[in-house]
Amino acid sequence: MTTTRALSAGALLLLGAMFAPAQAQDTSRDIKIVLPSAVDVVEPCHMNSTGYIGLVLKENVVETLLKLDPKTSKPLPNLATEWNQVNPTTWRIKLREGVKFHDGTPFDADAVVTALKRQFVPELACRDKIRSFGSITIQPKAIDKDTVEIVTSEPMPLLPLSLAQTGMTAPSTSMKEAERHPIGTGPYVFTSWDPAQSLVLTRFDGYWGKKPEVAKATYVWRSEPALRASMVAVGEADIALQLAVQDATNKDTDIGYLNADTSRVRIFMDKPPLNDKRVREAMNLAIDRSAFIGTIVSPLSVPASQYMLPSVNGYNPDLKPWPYDPEKAKQLIEEARKDGVPVDTEIELYGSEFMQANLSEMLETLVQYWQEVGLNVKINMVDKIQHSAMRRKPYPADRPPSMVHELHDNTAGDAFYTMIVYYTSDGGLSNISNPELDKLLKEASLATGEKRTKLFQEANRMIQQDIIPDVMLYHMVSYIRVGKRVHYEPNFTTQGQLELSAITFK
Amino acid sequence: MNGYVTKRMLHSLISMMGLIILVFFLSRLTGNPSDLYLPIDTPADVRAAFSQAHGFDDPMIVQFGHFLANLVHLDFGSSMRLERPALNLVLEAFPVSLTLAVLAMALALVIAIVAGSLAARSPNGVLDRFINVISLCGASVPNFWLALVSVLVFAVWMRWLPTSGMGGPEYWVLPVIVLAVRPCGLLAQVVRGSMISALSSAYVKTARAKGVSQRVIVFVHALRNAMLPIITVAGDQASGMINGAVVVEVIFGLPGIGRLMMESIQYRDFAVIQAGVILTACAIFLLNIAIDLAYALLDPRIKHA
């Protein structure tokens, strides 16, 4: 009997311990951030191009020479204090003094040269280098302890913006293989990483800048948005990213914000009826963009007129989204039909669910609108690999008249990063071959200051009004849940960069 | 017995070779994974260099030859996504899935045997109908829905348990229960049917005539004879769990084989897919051997030559 009682008491104690209220977040300066997917790679030279590497590392562990102002997209000083273009292919950068890497190595011109050269090591196949420098190569050189000169193989007026994307890693960083323990100059030290479960950063006491409030940040990942929201609701986490719109129900904690993504349908203009401008214009006029807002897309989404956010240099504020005018759309289609354009030909619209929430519903509604004005569009949902193959050159030669839904983010701050790839004849993702536009974009790419802005704005006008290569849809919205202990204001860079120093305690 | 195990191993080896060939070729027919690893605007030469570095530009049969040659040395290659040996990743994930499967299966079996036996004692009685309805609900409920609702109730509303993740015993409670519900419902139905049949057999009537207690009749005499179909169904359910309880692992953030395989398939991480398939196939082979041995133990009439 005694044994039975002891066992019962033990079992009760165990149950009591198990069912005690789950441990809530404590009152320390440690926080937990829950991400939608695993941080499975931490190589800093992929940080602007792959998963959540940048969100964890950028400006927390690894800093850049310059930093973009999220409001204006202009470069600001960071590890560099001054920069100037000596001639079209040469830039001179003055470095901040008194900065040290987490391993104690001084941050100087030699370290910067090593970090820049690392971006171009073939074995590392740095994805940021592809994005920021393309085919351009650079020759960095230390002029003195605090000055670096960078010579580019072609004129590169946007080098400051590229440097705002390039992480300065310690000289000890591997030059042969992907780094698994990145060392930088940032306010946080990369402390531990279990790719299956979590990643931890702790505050760097030797940081050159202002001491941030967060002492330790633990990143975990859960793919289910409702679960991420629940973790913040019960105090297991302080910030949850990428909530689904239906889970963002708490006005006190849930914040919607314009992310960098713009959504559109790209029209391949090589085959009839899509090679007729009237048909493409009709496709734009046939859609009531306001009808999607608050139903299929977030109530905070903004109808787009250009493939970039208004904060990007070169955005044309005079352009408005196409109005909803189904009568004019029908008239244009009829005119095209009378001129012998085969407007009844079936058009394939490719999409992939991974691109955005509620995409099937969005595409089905678009198709309905187009059917109402007399067009015959069929949806073809494909997986990510097939979708990418549809979007990039070389395009499949045997495809029917086609369109593809896609998203694009320009977080680098200048229209160049959108226009060259998407709108020039040689652009890897372009559906346009227009010598006049090519000339304009080449001139804009080499120009600086106000002239550059005006030229890109004119290019945006020409694209929207004269060529109509797409059906521009929305500037997209993300939702973040911020717990009651902390304060954080997201902005369009948050998906790729979440600075822990911007998090404060209430 | 040794002859039996050797024969089963040979059969399994043939099945595994077929499986390896299928997985190798089918997974590669889904397209070039460079699109998943490189930015969409990557120049063609960089894309080609990526394919070359990972051997995707070789003819498929050459790639298969390299794979088999390495497999002989138990070298499954490296994960493209995680840049680590594929076998290590699978071996690290496997214990999580195994723990989850063992706990969930043990819970499901205990509850199903007790509930099914009680229901079989008085077929069509109140208790039987109640257990029948509950077990049918359990067998039909989708894991995905149950997992989210259980988090909402026990973690968010009642605050009894953590929502997800790894840690102390409390972190296992919800995943194990959620994973156990479906097999438990199914097994309770099987136990009930099997026990009704056993309880109406001649040897039970004899035992009753001899005055043996109802508890001993149900749980000793009848249950042992009713166990064969239960083991068959339980084995099938356990195989599925060892394969990875994908939904439960993904929702509760458990780093098991199911989650690893799902992510590897999404990223066409061929080395990990292959290592995962081979390891789980081995585990299922061992499980089948154990089930066969259990048959022999429960029913001495079954002999493995």
TrEMBL record, chain A:
One of its GO terms (biological process) is peptide transport. Gene3D superfamilies: Dipeptide-binding Protein, Domain 1, Dipeptide-binding Protein, Domain 3, Periplasmic binding protein-like II. The keyword Signal applies. Keywords: Signal. It holds the Pfam family SBP_bac_5. It is found in: Periplasm. Residues 75-392 form the Solute-binding protein family domain. GO terms for molecular function: peptide transmembrane transporter activity. InterPro entries: Peptide/Ni-bd (IPR030678), SBP_5 (IPR039424), SBP_5_CS (IPR023765), SBP_5_dom (IPR000914). Belongs to the bacterial solute-binding protein 5 family. PANTHER family: PERIPLASMIC BINDING COMPONENT OF ABC TRANSPORTER. This is ABC transporter substrate-binding protein. It comes from Ancylobacter mangrovi.
Automatic annotation (TrEMBL), chain B:
Keywords: Cell membrane, Membrane, Transmembrane, Transmembrane helix, Transport. It is found in: Cell membrane. SUPFAM superfamilies: MetI-like. InterPro entries: MetI-like, MetI-like_sf. Residues 94-291 form the ABC transmembrane type-1 domain. GO terms for cellular component: plasma membrane. One of its GO terms (molecular function) is dipeptide transmembrane transporter activity. Belongs to the binding-protein-dependent transport system permease family. This is ABC transporter permease.
